[in-house]
What does this fold into?
Amino acid sequence: YQSCFRTLAMRPARVPLAEARILASMSRIQVDDSHVAACQFARWFPSLKGVTIPSRVIALPNDFVAYLHEDGVMMPEFLATTRPQPKAEWLDDDDDDQEAVDWSEEAKLDDADNDNDSGDDDEEEAVRSMEKEDFFPKLLAQIEAAIESLGGDVFVKLNWSSPKDAVWVTTGETLRCNTVGDVLLLLKSSDFIARDLSHAYDECDTHSLGLRETHDVSKADKPPPPEEESAFHLVLRRWSNLHPSREFRCFVRGRRLVAVCQRDYTQHFEELNESDARRTFVKLIGDFFRNKVRDKFELRDYVFDAYVDRKLKVFLVDFGTFGGTTDSLLFEWDELAKSEKKEEEESKEDDDDDDDDDDRVMWRVVETPNQIRPNSLAAFRMPHDLVDLSNSSAIDDFVRRANDNIENLTET
It folds into this structure.
């Protein structure tokens, strides 16, 4: 059974996109493929790098994208090594020192020999035994250099998404990476990353750019040159210890900030319920939006995440589409869509008064512990098969049914 458990533990769960489609259908806001394309990190980062977290963007070659499409989590042995993890210093809002986390063991595959190994095991062994110069050497060197230049600890994502659904594969259950192996393990284990690769435009209502799907180069009739750059980018961002109470989701409609809410709805924060919290944070975010973001981002309607540090400095975190698969968190899309008409009527009287703009912004936080909502990522803790087998009775039942099947086959 050791081989069986190893396979289950390292196989990423491939959850269908039905849930995302249901959520998208609940939104009556039309999303065009140009909106999705504009929210790619590599698209907006060059003009806004001065107001966001230090990052490095690496173009991914087609052969590496094909590797990400492959089933299973297979990596060479040399990627299982790690080094001491330094403490992140940039935007470190955490007062408590965090212990260094070593999750390199998660990247190691079991070396136990099995006389009944299949062809898949042979392929896995071939990948494991690869030398450094044979496994995307140029790309790995770029990733190592980027990690080093960002202080040794990074947060990883692709064009749109981070592999936050795959934290279950890491020992510390964190997205904090300090080796190439850490980065690849998360990328290969994530359904969100798989969606970026093949289904980023599936939920668009219109396609003015003709982008109906992201391309799976592994299934192309005529595969592009392996080392040629693909449409995908690996984004490495300097790891920062951020307080969840200072993370906000901000909604922009018609180039006006219309709503702000706390980003993490699984917690209640007293700080956000203080009498002056709304005025303080909406004013800070409103000024930041008007002075730093509005004239540099190409869309009229969008969502952006912001972080306000302890010195009351605002940083841009990311962009998302207004509607579609973007989570509206504590708001409903219907009420956000209605805010546009209200804004248009009120703006006719005064288009230049920024204070009035802030007064009209909707503000929403978790006001009491009873309003806390469940974590939407709970379904991605680990593969369903592994959850089932974690119960001893389920294992006994599995063995019993397997023996019954063997007896039936013998009798026939």
Remarks:
- The CA atoms of residues 117 and 335 lie 57 Å apart.
- The first helix runs from residue 2 to 10.
- The longest strand covers residues 229-238.
